[in-house]
Amino acid sequence: MFIRAVVILCVVTVWCDIIEEDNVAVQEKEHVPADSENPGCGCNSLRRDGGTNTVKTHIWHDQAAAKYSKALKEDQIDGGEHQQISDVPKQMVWIPAGEFLMGTDNPGIPQDGEGPQRKVHLDGFYMDVFEVSNLEFQKFVNTTGYVTEAEKFGDSFVFEGLLSEAVKGQISQAVAAAPWWLPVRGADWRHPEGPDSDIVGRLDHPVLHVSWNDAVAYCTWKGKRLPTEAEWECACRGGLKDRIFPWGNKLNPKGQHYANLWQGEFPNQNTGEDGYTKSAPVTSFPVNGYGLYNMVGNAWEWTADWWDIHHTTDELHNPTGPTMGNDKVKKGGSYMCHKSYCYRYRCAARSQNTPDSSSSNLGFRCVSQKLS
Ligand SMILES: *[C@@H]1O[C@H](CO)[C@@H](O)[C@H](O)[C@H]1NC(C)=O
Ligand SMILES: [Ca+2]
Ligand SMILES: [Ca+2]
Fold first, then answer.
1. Which ligand 1 atom is at minimum distance from the Cα of 141?
2. Distance between alpha carbon 136 and the CA centroid of its chain, in Å?
3. pTM of the model
4. How far apart are CA 364 and CA 175, in angstroms?
5. What spacing in Å lies between the alpha carbon of 133 and ligand 3's midpoint?
6. Which residues, at least 6 apart from 49, have a Cβ–Cβ distance to it below 8 Å?
7. Contact 140/218 with Cβ under 8 angstroms?
8. From atom 12 of ligand 1, which residue's Cα is the shortest distance away?
9. How far is the CA of 192 from the centre of ligand 2 (A)?
10. Can you tell me which residues the record assigns to a coiled coil (predicted)?
11. Domain count of the fold of the chain
């Protein structure tokens, strides 16, 4: 999957940390909840019954990749819609090659393996400016007939607060560690809050209820791939060095909201002070230094890497994470994240799910070495 075509598009090397904030040297003095206070959002406990056979997953993923690569090639010959790359430049931005500091020595959630901070070198790459939207995913499904894993399994995890009483009444099983997550029959990307919901009026919102395998199939079809965790985090930092958020160290500079998060008391009260109590259009909120939207908040984003909490401090070049594992790394947090429960809307923060998992706050975006 990780074909790294060496494309020397950028002769001058621009370092990831080239942009420095002048006067934000002091780390933000915010209350960081102790581990005991921070049971987590439970969004890492969402896994399908019977766990995951990673070997099987690999085969599935390779097949999917082959299938959609083929579709892409055929489409190129036919001059298919997604090959109209005239609108691609504004959909992707170039993240320049360079080095950056990955992770943090001041972890918000140490047990997630946010530290230690380590120097990582990356080749340049293009990244989708937006989370993949329902509209983009609909184009993919319309063209290929792709069926997501949530549709195959017949269910997906939905945050209880989003469900109608009718749907809630039919569900008995919940996630032990996080009772606000309910497995909902008929929940999928077209029905984000279960069978009585739809995406009408939300085509510009991030596609949700997509598994890691689904995300890989989509990116492959687009001639792209999922970002490695290192690429995602470098992009999240937007050229800033050693900052908490994509825009700096203050959560709400000048009282403004920079991301779609949770305000109020989780999980019972969401005031929607930032304008949204669930997902927001992928075009919402200010961009970071690289011109990327919603790197933290809105939808969690899958990365290519397997999950592990132990990291070497050796300087690495284009790290791709562990060679195997049970869970894939997701980054950025979501509209459900609140400091009291899920202080994961930080570039160094991370969480994990099995590659077949899907939920009402998990999406993705793709990267590529070149634009075509
Ligand atoms: C996908 O197909 C449906 C049903 O034909 C149609 O309503 C929708 O507009 C199509 N979406 C895209 C993005 O082409
Ligand atoms: Ca919100
Ligand atoms: Ca996001």
1. 1
2. 16
3. 0.81
4. 23
5. 11
6. none
7. yes
8. 139
9. 16
10. none
11. 1
- What stretch of H or E contains 90? none
Pocket of ligand 1 (CB under 6 A): 135, 138-139, 142
123 within domain boundaries:
yes
Q: How many CB atoms lie within 10 A of CB 60?
A: 17
Give the domain extent around 311.
89-133+205-368
Residues of the chain with pLDDT under 70: 1-41, 43, 49-90, 372
Contact by Cβ (8 Å): 43, 178: yes
Contact 352, 44 (CB under 8 A): yes
Q: Is residue 17 part of a domain?
A: no
Please write the tens of the pLDDT for every residue from 164-183: 998 988 887 777 778 889 99
Question: How many residues belong to the chain?
Answer: 372
Chain-centre distance of CA 215, in angstroms?
10
In a domain, 234, yes or no: yes
Angle of helix 54-78 relative to helix 134-144, nearest 10 degrees, comes to 80
CATH number at residue 257: 3.90.1580.10
Residue 71, domain member (yes or no) = no
The answer to whether residues 36 and 257 touch, using CB atoms and an 8 Å cutoff, is: no
Q: Which amino acid is at 252?
A: N
